[in-house]
Design a protein that fits this description.
The complex is a heterodimer. Chain A is about 75% helix and about 0% strand. Chain A has a two-stranded antiparallel ribbon. Chain A has 2 domains: about 160 residues, no CATH class; about 240 residues, MetI-like fold. Chain A is an all-alpha fold. By secondary structure, chain B is mainly α. Chain B folds into 3 domains: about 50 residues; about 130 residues, no CATH class; about 220 residues, Orthogonal Bundle (MetI-like fold). Helices cover about 65% and strands about 5% of the residues of chain B. Chain B has a 3-stranded antiparallel β-sheet. Chain B starts with a helix and ends with a helix. The chains are: A mainly alpha, B mainly alpha.
């Protein structure tokens, strides 16, 4: 790979520049009587030179790598604009693919039209030009940078503040990556969703009661216009999450109370990590467990009791999801319960309350905001959980509140719509992004609210 | 004024009730913990009982004659001839000469179904490695078909599962068993091969290599970036709205559903930057974004735990702020940061959902050799196998889960060990 080689070359030159800069500063310091006559330590002069040498070319290299391909593609396609005429995006991409495949020798040259061959040659030529000019430019830039950095070195030169300034900015850039990630999520989900809402009105999506995203290829097929009413998905998601919470909240909370208030040190030292094992198990394992062990078990149990339980019941998926969330709730609740000041416990016990009365009447009320915050975080996890429901819940969107039936969830539909081969601009794939937008918004609100509560609660007792 | 004696009576009466409530409450707590522990135990026993069988696989011993005329290869060094060779005929003729009384097309097909579909190619590989065998006859253990494997294992356990078996196949297996010509061997294919549609040929080598490349990239990107961000936020950031905003962002990203990161990867890396699908590069980038918040949060905690006296001493000696951080704070916080990195990597290793979005769910037979080869990862392989209809894949899936859990247990215990061993209490 060309870019990797250039990258390594730049790094090597940077290291070389470090030693040159350091050497020059040492050489300058020698007649003055040692390095204490320099403004900065010799290594800072080295870093300064290395930064001048490598940083500009690295920035240019990454920009080049981003814009290289789109630019070449548009140049090639412009060159054959008169042959193509006004075509749709799909044929445009098809032609482009064909040309690049011919250019790379994946597709044979026999039987292709002259225009395509010419375009492919043009593309190869552009790529060669791009590669060589990139190499040349990089070399020039690094060498110029090296000389510039080198020539600036003198005993009075303030290298350390400069180097530190650059480093601070690099650190800031790393910290800002979190913001860019959020921004990227919002933008990518939002743009595709807006495209989706152009073909399907928002109110139909949010309030529609029927979900069948199968859009037919031909107009005359049955069910050719898919319907995108997401209410069944929301209901299914809520149902599965409710089952999960029904399992996780009592068990998680009670085990947290027991571990924090009753358990001896040895029990706590054993039980707490053992419960946390549940948090470390990958969700795909839970999914397998739910689909192959819990769901058949529940189905057989239902049959023996005369109930008809679907083999993809919400109960199985939700129950296993609940098990997954137990350690999440128990460790969060454990934190807030242990944060309640000892004086409150002592006061209650001194009044003659039993330990359980103290827990129920004093500790839980005092810890309630934190516990509620923790439960909300757990709900947002349950809503966003994917693999368990993909493997153990159903595909068909059914509007029901019966946990014994099979339901589908938002995340299941996102996965089903986006795995497999589809064109990218059909409403079917875009619907996944609209669902993603919903999911992101709901979990974001839950998280912000919950984190706010938890933080506020912590400050209260600190 | 009520009489004090009455009150005491009341209290005494209520005391039994209150004490009973106390005992009940304690039992609720115990039961909750026991349910949690039972879930751990049931999960592990279920996986192990389903998966332990996959570490062994059935082989059948046959006398194989590498007949030059049947294969149609005269020159073992000519790749064109090797590719055209009729390799399937070799194990088939070996089976026919073993069970000479089988006739009729249907029975013959049943007979051929004893051996794996890939048996011919395995023999080809053997012949290519030892060209002198051409024209010779040797007695060799050949991989059996997955249905035979399932049946033979269940038959050995005393509860035969013969739903996909014909009567004469069962008879042949019993005959082979009596002669000692069928046996279970360690399933090395599981660890040396890539994915396959045939359960007996399928292995997790490809998925493990895919996971390896993906995780290496994730580690190389997320550790330096995460540590830098943590250093900035903890040591240099001024207290203002911008830093608060960054903090809120990081905390929220830690709680965003992982599938959303998959959507991000699909829209930005694949559709905008045209990174090819299914390659470890995209997987690594997506997992980097996903694990960054974890690494930043744990690294910040590690930096926070370094006492201010260290910084003050360094600053007092005339070190600059950067020298203080790089030479003193960072080395002391490193064990905590490494622990965080290992936990983040364990999280990334078990992650499936975002990788489904970026096409790492494809069926890939070849074992990836680099960051840009199409690959799948271990959890996705588990997902794919769990979806396969063949019964033998249940066993395989459980075995793959056992391998994945082993890696995770190693990573997590090493994180705990590292914390205990290297972290200093001030």
């Amino acid at each position: 790979m060309q870019a990797t080689n250039i990258f390594i070359l730049i790094l090597a030159l940077g290291i070389f520049a470090f030693y040159i800069g350091r050497g020059r500063s040492l050489a300058l310091a020698k007649p003055l009587g040692g390095i204490r006559y320099l403004h900065s330590l010799p290594s800072y002069y080295g870093f300064h030179t290395a930064l001048w040498c490598a940083l500009p070319s690295l920035i240019l290299l990454s920009l080049w790598m981003i814009f290289d391909e789109p630019l070449i593609n548009s140049l090639v396609m412009n060159s054959m604009a008169d042959q193509l005429g006004n075509t749709s995006l799909a044929t445009y991409n098809l032609q482009l693919n064909k040309i690049s495949n011919i250019a790379e020798g994946i597709l044979g040259r026999q039987g292709q039209s002259d225009a395509l061959l010419a375009a492919a040659d043009y593309m190869t030529q552009l790529k060669v030009v791009s590669r060589w000019s990139l190499t040349a430019l990089m070399l020039c830039l690094t060498v110029i940078g090296l000389f510039f950095g080198w020539s600036r070195i003198n005993p009075q030169f303030r290298a350390r503040p400069l180097v530190e300034k650059v480093m601070q900015n690099l650190l800031l850039a790393c910290a800002c990556l979190a913001i860019f990630t959020t921004l990227g999520i919002v933008l990518s989900v939002l743009f595709e969703s807006i495209q989706f809402f152009r073909s399907v009105p928002v109110h139909e999506f949010v309030f529609g009661l029927e979900w069948s995203p199968q859009t037919a290829i031909r107009e005359d097929q049955v069910g050719s216009s898919g319907s995108f009413g997401a209410v069944p998905l929301f209901v299914g998601t809520l149902l599965v999450s409710a089952v999960a919470m029904f399992v996780a909240v009592p068990i998680g909370l009670m085990s947290a109370i027991y571990l924090a208030e009753y358990a001896s040190k040895t029990v706590r030292a054993f039980a707490k990590p053992a419960l946390e094992v549940l948090a470390g198990i990958p969700t795909v394992v839970y999914g397998f467990f739910a689909a192959l062990t819990v769901a058949p078990f529940l189905r057989d149990l239902g049959t023996s009791m005369g109930l008809s339980v679907s083999s993809e019941s919400a109960l199985a998926a939700g129950g296993v999801m609940g098990v997954m969330i137990i350690p999440f709730i128990s460790s969060l609740a454990d934190d807030v319960i242990t944060a309640v000041p000892q004086s409150m416990r002592d006061g209650s016990l001194a009044m003659g309350a039993t330990q359980s009365e103290t827990v129920r009447r004093v500790i839980i009320p005092a810890a309630l905001p934190g516990i509620v915050g923790g439960i909300m975080l757990a709900v947002s996890r349950a809503i966003g959980e994917t693999m368990i429901v993909v493997m153990a819940a159903g595909m068909a969107a059914k509007l029901t509140a019966n946990p014994l039936e099979s339901v589908t969830t938002v995340t299941v539909q996102i996965v089903t719509l986006l795995t497999g081969d589809q064109e990218f601009d059909s409403p079917k794939t875009l619907a996944a992004f609209a669902l993603g937008l919903m999911l992101f918004t709901v979990t974001l609100l839950l998280n912000i609210f919950a984190l706010h509560i938890v933080k506020k609660y912590r400050e209260q007792y600190e | 004024m009520s009489k004090p004696v009455d009150n005491l009576d009341k209290i005494k009466q209520s005391l039994t009730r209150r004490n009973r409530a106390e005992t009940r409450f304690r039992w609720y707590g115990r039961i909750a913990i026991l349910i949690g522990l039972a879930a751990v135990i049931v999960l592990f026993t279920d996986i192990i009982s389903k998966g332990h069988g996959a570490f062994q696989v059935t082989y059948i011993q046959l006398d194989v004659h590498y007949d030059q005329d049947i294969i149609g290869v005269a020159n073992m060094t000519d790749p064109a001839q090797l590719a055209d060779g009729n390799w399937d005929a070799v194990p088939k003729s070996a089976l026919r000469s073993k069970f000479t009384d089988v006739s009729g097309r249907r029975d013959k097909r049943k007979l051929y179904a004893l051996l794996s579909n890939g048996a011919g190619f395995d023999l080809k590989d053997r012949l290519v490695a030892n060209p002198l065998l051409l024209g010779q006859t040797e007695s060799i253990w050949i991989l059996a078909d997955d249905d035979i494997d399932t049946y033979y294992k269940s038959w050995l356990d005393g509860e035969p599962y013969g739903a996909r078996m014909a009567d004469n196949q069962i008879a042949w297996i019993e005959q082979l068993h009596d002669e000692g010509n069928i046996r279970l061997q360690f399933n090395s294919n599981l660890f040396t091969r890539g994915d396959s549609r045939e359960p007996e040929q399928a292995g997790i080598r490809g998925a493990i290599m895919g996971s390896f490349f993906t995780l290496i990239l994730t580690l190389m990107l997320s550790f330096p970036i995460g540590v830098s961000a943590a250093i900035y936020l903890e040591e240099f950031a001024p207290k203002n709205r911008w830093t608060d905003f960054i903090e809120v962002n990081i905390n929220n990203l830690a709680a965003v559903p992982s599938i959303i990161f998959g959507l991000l990867g699909l829209a930005i890396f694949i559709n905008f930057f045209h990174v090819p699908r299914s390659v470890p590069v995209v997987g690594g980038l997506v997992l980097t974004l996903m694990t960054l918040p974890t690494i930043i949060i744990t690294s910040r905690a590690a930096i926070k735990s370094v006492p201010p006296s260290i910084r003050e001493a360094a600053l007092g000696m005339g070190a600059s702020k950067y020298q203080t951080v790089l030479h003193h704070v960072l080395p002391l916080a490193l064990p905590g940061m490494l622990t965080g990195a290992i936990i983040g990597m364990a999280q990334a290793l078990g992650e499936t959902a975002p990788l489904l979005m970026i096409g790492m769910v494809a069926f890939i037979v070849d074992i990836p050799a680099g960051f840009t080869d199409p690959a799948t990862v271990l959890p996705v392989q588990i997902f794919l196998w769990a979806d396969s209809p063949e019964r033998a894949f249940i066993e395989k899936t459980s075995a793959a889960i056992m391998v994945l859990l082993t890696f995770l247990i190693i990573m997590n215990t090493s994180a705990v060990w590292l914390r205990k061993r290297l972290e200093r209490r001030w």
